[in-house]
């Protein structure tokens, strides 16, 4: 079968083709330079929030080791610090990085220079304001108490307004795209642009404006949290991977039909998930069962996307040795598959009884948010930033350090949380054990998690430093990209 | 944030028309591969088969553990929904509607048709509408009440020693079925301290046939002409203690 794989030939250098290729390049150059300011604003903000979140997580880790630390300062108590840190991670870092990448991809794939940059700049400003107000609000004690929706009302309004500006921009860009086939990435990005306001507005309305009754609030909350992972981060991450993998290796995506099937089943099944987190709660059985069935069925889009990426990559895996973008993106894509399998395991009733009040759900969240989404975002930044600042990444060694500390960090963290959470669940279900003793089973795993946090902290600071060098113009001016390893032969990767 | 960008002459005053410097400043763009395209590899059959099986499994799972798709079904294995149950009604919700006793059904008919005049407490209105609670016509034999209900009543009347004027009771034989007449009379004869026997639909049907030719309403003398203890055909004799179970089948009236 491998002999039948067709590799799209490079544009030939005959006089006629040179002109067409030249036109394409000029067009790409114009588009890229038009995206420079908005995308860099989003990326810079995202990385600043990532560093802040990292700093706060050091404090929260410290408080787990020594609970008395800073205990007398009200705004540094665990109950405020922990949600503030995590919300910065999802709204400050992940969402802003995702939107930055989405903006760049949208402009490129619509093949039109970026219109109305002011929409994006003001959108970014409002978004930053929203995250800032929300963080201060939580630390001041104004948390709403709903998971991932802790930001007080005024911050939520700012976030939503910011989002409307960005979404409007996305729709305008799509409306004025150059005619031609709409690429897979655009499907996912458009989906994400439209799904996020639905999720966010529905959750806000049903929890705070017209609160639903009693236990149904928990249902709304879990539906939102689960689908923020699937429909928002999932769409952007998958869309990015669908662009970066074929782009770097220079080969078409394996199958359009697989992509279509994967996208529509993803859209259909994902929005039904969420209630599987409420197994054995006082909910009508059909709600929970429908979510479990939908979660099981998400294996269809996951397997489809995974198969499509794998077949696209076939024969090009050696490129992982050189290309930072490919390495981060493929790691993320594989993590997405792992994330979904863990999600299915957790959603089965027999398993959920064991693990759903344990650290397993934390591990699951980090598997999706970090091992999948954040790694894909790092990959896309390694591709996009050189095109925005006109320089190459300065040090291959820093990229390697970033990759390995991030990989070992998140790998260790997820492994410890999943295994530790399972052990915790077993002892929680043991009626002969006092509660405090059942808590002791998780302690060594959490100590190990601090080590993984240390690795992630290193990787974040290394990346932020490297990004800062690029921003300040200290990148290399070479015409070859910064590969992770010196080329032994022509890798065939266009990076 | 662009303020941090280096004062690079190539990036200052970007003019979309400039192409000269592009080869130098955008080496990355020059060397990069073509934009991604989509291959057209067909879906393999075994994949479609596996997905079909997955969808089938999902549907079966949903059907098996859907808890009857009821908003009250908290048990995913499909156990009985938890309903605030009526005493003695232990079955599923669907069976409960059929388990209303004749008196309970009669209560609904009474409040819809009779309570306007005779009042919900069965005491009527002094001087206008006679009471039903403790009325000698109601608690006597069942023939008189069935007669009145079928054909109506007009003219002055004396109930419990009180005179009532000229208010008219309409005939109900065109409006209510035999079963409904039986139910509402059973209710009236066993409510408000009344302890008379229930009335069966068969008895009402027999009376309806017997009185089919009569067009006008009864007057007091017509009623008094019927012995006070005479029952409608097929109706159970008045039980001394009034303990007859209202839920008993009309075909087999309880023997007291």
What does this molecule look like?
The complex is a heterodimer of chains A (about 500) and B (about 260). Chain A is an all-alpha fold. Chain A has helices at about 15-65, 80-110, 115-140, 155-175, 185-210, 215-250, 255-270, 285-295, 300-315, 325-345, 350-355, 360-390, 395-430, 435-440, 445-470. The radius of gyration of chain A is 23 Å and the shape is globular. By secondary structure, chain B is an all-alpha fold. Chain B has a domain at about 100-225: Cytochrome c-like domain (Cytochrome Bc1 Complex, Chain D, domain 2). Chain B has helices spanning about 20-25, 25-30, 45-65, 95, 100-115, 115-120, 135-140, 145-150, 180-190, 200-210, 220-225; strands at about 155-160, 160-165. The chains are: A mainly alpha (about 500), B mainly alpha (about 260). Chains A and B meet through helix 1, helix 6, helix 7, helix 8 and helix 9 of A and helix 2 and helix 3 of B.
Assembly status: heterodimer
Mean pLDDT of chain A: 91
Order of helical and strand elements of chain B:
HHHHHHHHEEHHH
Would you identify the regions of chain A where 5 or more consecutive residues have pLDDT less than 50? Answer: 1-5
CATH topology of one domain in chain B: Cytochrome Bc1 Complex, Chain D, domain 2
What overall geometry of chain B do the principal axes of the alpha carbons give?
Answer: rod-shaped
Q: Indicate the structural class of chain B.
A: mainly alpha
Biggest sheet statistics of chain A = none
What's the CATH architecture of the largest domain in chain A? Up-down Bundle
Give me the count of strands of chain B.
Answer: 2
CATH homologous superfamily of one domain in chain B? Cytochrome c-like domain
Question: Can you tell me the CATH architecture of one domain in chain B?
Answer: Orthogonal Bundle
Number of strands of chain A: 0
Structural shape of chain A: globular
Distance between the termini of chain B: 98 Å
Total of DSSP H or I helical runs spanning 4+ residues of chain B? 11
Query: Which pair of chains forms the biggest interface, and how many residues does each contribute?
Result: A-B, 75 and 53 residues
């Amino acid at each position: 079968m491998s002999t039948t794989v067709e590799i799209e030939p490079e544009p030939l250098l005959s006089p006629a083709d040179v002109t067409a290729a030249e036109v394409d390049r000029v067009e790409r150059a114009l588009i890229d330079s038009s995206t420079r300011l908005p995308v860099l604003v989003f990326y810079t903000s995202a990385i600043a929030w990532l560093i802040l979140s990292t700093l706060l997580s050091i404090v929260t880790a410290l408080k787990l080791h020594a609970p008395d630390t800073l205990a007398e300062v009200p705004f540094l108590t665990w109950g405020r610090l922990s949600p503030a840190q995590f919300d910065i991670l999802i709204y400050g870092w992940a969402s802003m990085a995702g939107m930055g990448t989405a903006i760049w991809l949208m402009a490129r794939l619509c093949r039109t220079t970026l219109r109305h940059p002011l929409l994006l700049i003001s959108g970014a400003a409002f978004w930053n304001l929203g995250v800032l107000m929300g963080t201060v609000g939580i630390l001041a004690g104004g948390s709403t108490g709903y998971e991932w929706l802790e930001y007080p009302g005024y911050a939520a309004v700012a976030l939503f307004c910011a989002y409307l500006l960005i979404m409007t921009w996305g729709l305008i860009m799509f409306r004025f795209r150059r005619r031609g086939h709409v690429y897979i990435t655009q499907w996912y990005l458009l989906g994400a642009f439209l799904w996020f306001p639905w999720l966010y507005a529905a959750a806000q309305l049903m929890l705070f404006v017209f609160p639903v009754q009693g236990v149904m609030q928990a249902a709304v909350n879990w539906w939102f949290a689960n689908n923020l992972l699937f429909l928002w981060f999932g769409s952007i991450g998958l869309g990015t991977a669908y662009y970066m993998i074929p782009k770097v290796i220079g080969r078409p995506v394996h199958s359009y039909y697989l992509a279509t099937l994967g996208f529509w089943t993803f859209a259909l099944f994902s929005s039904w998930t969420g209630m599987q987190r409420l197994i054995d709660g006082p909910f009508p059985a059909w709600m929970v069962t429908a979510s479990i069935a939908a979660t099981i069925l998400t294996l269809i889009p996951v397997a489809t996307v995974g198969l499509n990426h794998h077949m696209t990559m076939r024969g090009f895996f050696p490129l992982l040795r050189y290309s930072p973008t490919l390495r981060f993106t493929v790691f993320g894509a594989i993590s997405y598959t792992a994330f979904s399998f863990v999600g299915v395991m957790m959603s089965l009733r027999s398993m959920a009884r064991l693990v759903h009040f344990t650290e397993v759900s934390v591990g699951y969240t980090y598997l999706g948010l970090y091992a999948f989404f954040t790694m894909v975002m790092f990959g896309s930044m390694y591709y996009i930033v050189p095109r925005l600042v006109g320089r190459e990444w300065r040090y291959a060694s820093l990229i390697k350090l970033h990759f390995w500390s991030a990989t070992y960090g998140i790998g260790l963290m997820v492994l410890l949380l999943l295994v530790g959470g399972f052990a915790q669940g077993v002892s929680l279900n043991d009626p002969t054990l006092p509660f405090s003793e059942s808590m002791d089973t998780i302690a060594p795993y959490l100590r190990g998690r601090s080590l993984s946090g240390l690795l992630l902290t290193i990787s974040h600071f290394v990346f932020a430093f490297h990004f800062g060098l690029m921003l300040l113009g200290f990148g290399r001016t070479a015409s070859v990209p910064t590969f992770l390893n010196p080329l032994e032969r022509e890798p065939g990767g266009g990076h | 944030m662009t303020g941090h960008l280096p004062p690079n002459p190539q990036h200052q005053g970007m003019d979309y028309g400039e192409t000269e410097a592009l080869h130098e400043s955008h080496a990355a763009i020059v060397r990069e591969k073509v934009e991604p395209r989509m291959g057209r590899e067909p879906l393999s059959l075994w994949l479609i088969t596996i997905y079909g099986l997955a969808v089938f499994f999902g549907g079966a799972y949903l059907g098996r553990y859907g808890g009857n798709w009821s908003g009250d079904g908290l048990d995913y294995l499909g156990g009985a929904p938890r309903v605030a149950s009526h005493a003695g009604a232990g079955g599923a919700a669907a069976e409960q509607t059929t388990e209303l006793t004749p008196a309970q059904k009669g209560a609904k008919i009474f409040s819809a048709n009779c309570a306007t005049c005779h009042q919900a407490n069965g005491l009527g209105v002094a001087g206008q509408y006679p009471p039903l609670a403790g009325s000698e016509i109601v608690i006597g034999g069942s023939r008189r009440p069935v007669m009145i209900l079928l054909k109506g009543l007009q003219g002055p009347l004396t109930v419990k020693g009180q005179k009532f004027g000229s208010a008219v009771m309409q005939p109900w034989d065109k409006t209510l079925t035999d079963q409904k007449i039986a139910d509402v009379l059973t209710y009236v004869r066993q409510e408000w301290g009344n302890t008379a026997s229930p009335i069966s639909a068969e008895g009402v049907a027999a009376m309806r046939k017997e009185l089919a030719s009569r067009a006008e309403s009864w007057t007091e003398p017509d009623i008094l002409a019927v012995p006070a203890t005479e029952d409608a055909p097929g109706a159970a004799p008045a039980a001394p203690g009034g303990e007859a179970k209202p839920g008993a089948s009309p075909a087999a009236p309880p023997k007291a």
